[in-house]
Write a structure and sequence with these properties.
Blueprint (H helix, E strand, L loop, with lengths): L7 H9 L4 E2 L2 H10 L3 E7 L10 H12 L3 E7 L20 H15 L13 E4 L1 H4 L4 H7 L6 H6 L1 H7 L7 H4 L1 H16 L3 E5 L3 H15 L4 E5 L12 E2 L2 E2 L9 H9 L6 H8 L4 H8 L5 H18 L1 H16 L9 E4 L8 E2 H7 L6 H9 L3 E3 L2 E2 L6 E2 L8 E5 L3 E7 L2
Parallel strand pairs: 2-3, 2-5, 3-4, 5-6, 9-15
Antiparallel strand pairs: 1-6, 7-8, 10-13, 11-12, 11-14, 14-15
Helix pairs in contact: 10-11, 12-15, 12-16, 13-14, 13-15, 15-16, 17-18
Length: 417
């Protein structure tokens, strides 16, 4: 990246590693220096929470606002009914309207922690594309919007081509998704003066469609900027962990587990993640990322604390660090560990340790739990767990049981009253 921008926002994006590509650096930079630029990211409501994979997009909107511009969070109440086929091997399951509304309510919770929804010129907007998509007249839409799209060009997009060669075909429903996303950009520009769409680099084709459509229909110049699709240094997709998605909502991923995810960052990723997911100065991110040996662990704790403070608050971060210190350094049982509560009625015939390992989330399946035990990776109250057939009774739970998977993942099992 050789372009040297005048605007603070693009400087931040480039220096901190957010920018993958941009449609017109110079014109976008000029717009950013000329006044307040409204910019949006769309989030389809396919689950009740976003996960860590979306955090780079949320941080993009946070920096947009911090540098004097207006973020727009667009909930996909309409587009979720279709489902984005981009780089998927199969069709997404269709959700009911009630499920979509429930998911949107869950997703909205996280945004207020990162950006400010107020009445100022840079106050964020929370919108839902069902506002203009639900009442579309199909024939009018085909005539006014559909005529601007070339099927030949749409078939050339990598996200579409990757599905055409698969056994699971691309449905006409999904094929319409890119038209609807382009229409979102047009409507946001027409209604709210939105000038830029952000998204992961897999959304490049969809973003370009929206820019072309808006130019054809309204003759307005708008922009697109993509962020890199992040993988960890060992090749894993960002947002996933050994026991599933790392959700941003506390009721779907406990703050302690969220903190642990960041504490377990591989050494090679620390500096990069500090730049992307915290607001520490770049020089400090570079210094911490360059630490070696045991010192890098201190940098990982700083990373975990900073990211957890943004997402869950400073108290949750402090509690998570204290719990981790108690568990790892003192061998104790931290009060904030993920906890499975069982009741006497559940324990008439006891419960297998394999079930406990899976129900606490330390393993994704019984097969995985058995392998964990066979490979000496499981511990019960800090002692090696070697018997995969062990049955835990109610009397065994007079005191809480601590289960561990490896050295860094722990959970409690307690008996409720």
């Amino acid at each position: 990246m050789t372009y040297h921008p005048k605007s603070e926002f693009l400087n931040v994006m480039i220096s901190r590693g957010f920018l993958a590509d941009c449609t017109d650096y110079q014109a976008f930079d000029d717009a950013l220096t000329a006044g307040v630029v409204p910019g949006y990211i769309g989030f389809d409501a396919t689950a009740k929470s976003l996960h860590v994979g979306s955090l780079i997009q949320i941080m993009t909107l946070r920096w947009l606002q911090k540098t004097g511009h207006q973020p727009i969070t667009l909930m996909g109440g309409g587009t979720t009914k279709v489902g984005d086929p981009s780089f998927r091997a199969d069709e997404r399951p269709l959700l009911t309207n009630a499920q979509i509304d429930d998911n949107i309510a869950g997703i909205k919770q996280v945004f207020a922690k990162y950006i400010s929804y107020d009445d100022s010129r840079t106050g964020a907007l929370m919108l839902n594309n069902a506002e203009w998509l639900d009442d579309l007249n199909y024939l009018d839409f085909l005539r006014d919007i559909g005529r601007h799209f070339s099927v030949n060009r749409m078939l050339s997009f990598e996200s579409v081509k990757s599905r055409l060669d698969r056994e699971q075909s691309l449905s006409f429903l999904e094929f319409n998704y890119m038209i609807l996303q382009a229409y979102d950009f047009l409507e946001l520009n027409r209604r709210y003066g939105c000038l830029v769409q952000f998204g992961g680099s897999d959304q490049w084709g969809n973003i370009i469609n929206g820019i072309d459509l808006t130019r054809r229909v309204l003759d307005h110049e708008i922009f697109g900027m993509t962020t890199p699709l992040l993988t960890t240094s060992d090749g894993k997709k960002m947002g996933k962990s050994a026991d599933g998605a790392v959700w941003l909502n506390a009721d779907m991923r406990a703050p302690y587990e969220f903190w642990q995810f960041w504490r377990n960052t591989t050494d090679a990723d620390v500096g990069r993640f500090l730049k992307l997911y915290t607001e520490l100065p770049i020089d400090e991110c570079d210094r911490l990322g360059a630490l070696q040996g045991a010192e890098i662990n201190a940098a990982k704790i700083i990373l975990a604390n900073e990211v957890t403070t943004l997402c869950h608050g400073i108290e949750a971060a402090a509690t998570a660090e204290a719990t981790a210190r108690e568990v790892f350094e003192q061998g104790g049982i931290g009060d904030d560990l993920p906890t499975l509560t069982l009741y006497a009625d559940d324990m008439v015939n006891g419960i297998s340790v394999i079930q406990l390992i899976t129900r606490t989330g330390l393993a994704g399946s019984g097969k995985e739990a058995k392998r964990l035990i066979a490979e000496n990776g499981a511990r019960l109250n800090d002692a090696p767990l070697t018997d995969a057939g062990l049955i835990i009774s109610a009397t065994d739970l007079v005191n809480p049981i601590k289960l561990s998977a490896g050295k860094k993942r722990h959970a409690l099992v307690v008996l409720g009253e």
